[in-house]
Amino acid sequence: MAESFGKSFTVVEVTVDDGQTQIWIALAKASQALTLVLAAAPEGATAEVLNVALTPKQQRLFEELNLEPGDVCRVDK
Question: Is the dihedral of CA 19, 69, 53, 32 positive or negative?
């Protein structure tokens, strides 16, 4: 049986080869977010889940992206 992605946002910091960082969100449990983000991030990147509490404004902003469970989106562009 497939595991549910959950209904909460996970914030992930990605570091690319040149040392720059990117912020991504995943509509998935933290245990799944790293794999999902790394699959979408540039090749060779590393990722770390950030333990941050979202503000109500951030939560609304992320909800407006209309992500489906398992979707990821880079938000620092």
Answer: negative
pLDDT (tens, 9 = 90+) of the chain, 77 residues, equals 346 888 899 999 999 999 999 999 999 999 899 999 999 999 999 999 999 999 999 999 999 999 999 999 999 86
- Starting at the edge strand found earlier in the chain, the sheet holding 9-15 runs 46-50, 9-15, 21-27, 72-74
pTM: 0.88
Amino acid at 68: E
Of 15, 53, 49, give the one whose Cα is nearest residue 34: 49
